[in-house]
């Protein structure tokens, strides 16, 4: 306290208190449905990493200068502990060398099999070969070009690994590669959206695994808008960039409202699922602190939150680093180890890979 002096310490403590309240809001406000009087609450989770970092910085400052001041930051961390560990799990001592039996399941938005970085639409496509090299039991893909999937389903190199290959009729083209028989499939189209969900029934041993391979509403952000938004962050007094940032906010609010409807639709079906086991996975376009995530987290297990380590960033374009791809499983499936593989960079997403044990 003597080091800072009262004139500096108390204003800093007031700022710390404000940040603490905003952090709590970012953790719990996002559980509110984005359709209502407070739609922006559903976006509050986007600010979590920045607010948490500021709160942590204050904690370190107070511990070095005035230990009583640290109580605000410590109390905030305790209040936000569960959402924080959902966002940033710390299963540091979980063994990666898990024992069989388990299924290796992948959810991966391939961005059209990396069309922005290569024009190879043949079976030599690097993203396709990357998927084959992973040799998982099941791969659930979003943004899958139908011509590659159709060629893959007739190619011996592919079918020798994955006898069951298919793609949805939705414009977002969800696809699957499976070593296990697919007993049935259905395309679930979202109203007024180019996105959708591929529903599958997969036979594993003598049981049925229901899979909802989803691509929830995209944020509809253009490159120019994101560029202007970054400029606004650097120079918030510029009115031109401010107008662009308002456009970004409007698009985000519209998109998150659409995702809420889509998530509830899939959650209702998954809740009433008759199959013994259920997986809901895909590109949610929402973080672990979002309404769409909360809808499934209420009755399913987030595989990464249960068995991963760190932020687990899956989206890495435009300097927007978030985990927006998720893999949920019914409570009778145990996630043994889940991770994000960052070795393949042709897509703007990284795959979520999980080893799951069916109980």
Approximate helicity band = 25-40%
Q: Major sheet, described briefly?
A: 6 strands, mixed
Order of strands, widest sheet: 3-4-2-1-12-11
> Into how many domains do the coordinates divide?
2
Question: Which structural class fits the helix and strand makeup?
Answer: alpha+beta
Instruction: Tell me how many strands there are.
Output: 12
CATH topology call of the largest domain:
Deoxyribonuclease I, Chain A
**How do the helices and strands follow one another from N- to C-terminus?**
HHHHEHHEHHEEEEEHHEHEHEEE
Please state the overall shape, judged from the principal axes of the Cα atoms. globular
Strand residues, percent: 15-25%
| CATH architecture tag of the largest domain | 4-Layer Sandwich
User: CATH homologous superfamily of the largest domain, by name?
Assistant: Endonuclease/exonuclease/phosphatase
Mean pLDDT comes to 90
Question: Brief description of this entry?
Answer:
The chain is of the alpha+beta class and 359 residues long.
């Amino acid at each position: 306290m003597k080091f800072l002096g009262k004139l500096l310490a108390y204003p800093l403590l007031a700022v710390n208190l404000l940040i603490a309240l905003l952090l709590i809001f970012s953790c719990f406000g996002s559980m509110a449905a984005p359709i209502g009087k407070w739609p922006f609450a559903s976006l509050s989770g986007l600010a979590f990493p920045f607010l948490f970092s500021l709160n942590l910085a204050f904690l370190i400052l107070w511990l070095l200068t005035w230990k009583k001041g640290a109580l605000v930051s410590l109390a905030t961390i305790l209040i936000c502990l569960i959402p924080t560990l959902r966002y940033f799990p710390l299963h540091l001592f979980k063994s990666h060398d898990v024992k069989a039996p388990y299924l290796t399941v992948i959810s991966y938005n391939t961005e059209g099999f990396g069309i922005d970085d290569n024009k190879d639409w043949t079976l030599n496509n690097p993203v396709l070969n990357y998927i084959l090299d992973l040799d998982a039991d099941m791969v659930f893909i979003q943004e899958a070009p139908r011509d590659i999937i159709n060629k893959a389903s007739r190619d011996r190199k592919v079918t020798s690994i994955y006898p069951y290959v298919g793609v949805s009729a939705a414009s977002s083209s969800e696809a699957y590669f499976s070593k296990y028989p697919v007993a049935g499939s259905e395309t679930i189209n979202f109203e007024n959206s180019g996105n959708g969900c591929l529903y599958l029934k997969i036979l594993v041993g003598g049981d049925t695994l229901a899979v909802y391979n989803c691509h929830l509403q995209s944020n509809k952000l253009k490159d120019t808008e994101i560029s202007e938004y970054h400029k606004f962050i650097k120079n918030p007094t510029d009115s031109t960039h401010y107008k662009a940032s308002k456009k970004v906010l409007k698009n985000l609010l519209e998109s998150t409202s659409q995702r809420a409807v889509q998530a509830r639709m899939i959650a209702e079906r998954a809740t009433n699922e008759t199959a013994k086991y259920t997986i809901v996975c895909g590109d949610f376009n929402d973080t672990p602190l979002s309404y769409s995530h909360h809808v499934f987290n209420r009755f399913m297990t987030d595989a990464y939150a249960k068995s991963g380590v760190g932020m687990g960033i899956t989206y890495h374009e435009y300097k927007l680093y978030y985990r927006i791809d998720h893999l949920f499983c019914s409570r009778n499936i145990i996630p043994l180890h889940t991770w994000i593989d960052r070795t393949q960079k042709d897509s703007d997403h990284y795959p979520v890979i999980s080893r799951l044990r069916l109980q």
